[in-house]
Amino acid sequence: MLIDITQDNLYISLCSRKLRADKTSYISEVEKAIAAGNKFISLCAPTGLGVSTFIDMLGTFYNERVDNSAFWGTDIVNDQKSFAKRGSCIVLTYDFQEVNSTTGYNKFLSDLADQTYMAVTSLYPNITKLSKYDWLSQLSSLSHETGKQLVLVFKNFDRVLYYVTKTRDFLNAWSRLWATLIESNRKNNFIYLAVAGTHIPEIIDRMVNPDVSGGKSLFYNLSSNKISQADTMFGWCGITYEEMTTILKASFSELDSDELYDWCGRYDGGLVKPNSLFTSIEAKDLFITSNVTNAVSFIRDTLNNGFGNYLLCGDIGIARLLNGETVSMKAISVYDPRLNSKYTDEIYAFTRRFLQRLYAEGLISLVPKSDSRLDVANLVNTEIMMAVPEEINSYSDYLNAICQLAAKRENIQEALEKNDGFVLRDVLNEYLLLQKKYLGEHSNITIWQAVNDLLSDIDNVEVIPYENLFILRDISNGYYQIIAIGVNVNDEVLLDKTLNLRLKSNAFNKKINGYTGRLNAFIYNFSLGASQEPKITLRTSLVS
Prior knowledge:
The protein is α/β, with parallel strands linked by helices. Helix content is 41%, strand content 13%. It is built from 19 helices and 13 strands. β7 and β8 form a beta hairpin.
């Protein structure tokens, strides 16, 4: 974590280089929110569209240590009531860029207090009653002894949310921290403004007080569609000239950056609110933000810590998305062993947050198959395929390997069409070896999920799960194939007792719509154990 207590922020830097869009008029909207009792606010926009720059501007505006010259000639000067607040507060900027999937909550709290203590004592050495271990007390004492209210700026706040909210327990722990801060401020009134910036749409709304039944969000999201005043904040985010030039080059656009100096996106020919813009819909506009590296690093972190199998789309599904494929996010099957876990709801929630992150970075497009804009989604995916592989291939790690593995799905389909099940066996075996090599003890192999991710959405094939079987139905001719899965089971038991019982059941007959022809069955038996190399045996059989 980094606590910025100096003038060296992005907004000041851009001012010195004259590379900024004048967004100061929106300070008036922030002031209106504060006047209405909303001291804790959040702002959301896609990565690269100016969230950090905007909240840096807010910090610069209220900071007593910044000279007025930074705002000479800007729009906010015309609002004398709001401008009167300029330089009236002490500003602390907390940057969560270094928070990652291994950051422990307790260590974070201790670091928060330690670094705040060092920052305050270096700037205000005359403060006498400053706790070394209590963050809330530190903030209250700073305000009380200086006679000034505080402006707290939380940059890269979404890193806190998408790294540590794997379960509700973690989410509640973070919520309690900010709920306690808000409650403490109600008693002592030491905060003038606390602003959080995020790149994930509406995720900030999940930060609700866990101790209050039906409690509302702890932060007032000025850029949320749920806020009636959101229209007045329309256009608050903007891209710097430098960022715009980078994006235009990366997307091979013929647009003149001067035309888009104050751009915040277009949709069906009209401007859109920043929180709804994540990839451009018009072919003439932009498709990808300039921060592919950030998103790929996030994906790599998630996978390399063993969370891939915790996602509804699985780690192979993630690789398919990055390879530009379409992935159907179907409900968890009744035959998925995770259904019996207390974490089933969390799998849904974690997957949604994960996909929102990729969506916000412009790495995937979330367009339903029935949507009339599918052609645009395909165009977006083409741009993604041009931008992502370079980032993935720059590292020789699990993400790179899993993307190469997922690319072999086409070979699996070709082999199955020839009644050859060995390609699927080899790919699955390679998958198990990758898990063992890169994840080790973090590996949480779900064979059902891996097979499903490799088979699902194959062209012209319907995949029907039935207990330990996958029924593949060729949509064009109604022909069926059977894939049976066993883990650490005797081959004869798997074939004679398990498979045959399934095939003779009325439930199976309904799954294949009473089909009476002979079926090709591929029986895969996985031998897994902590002290042994994974192995898969394959038997093929014609059954009727």
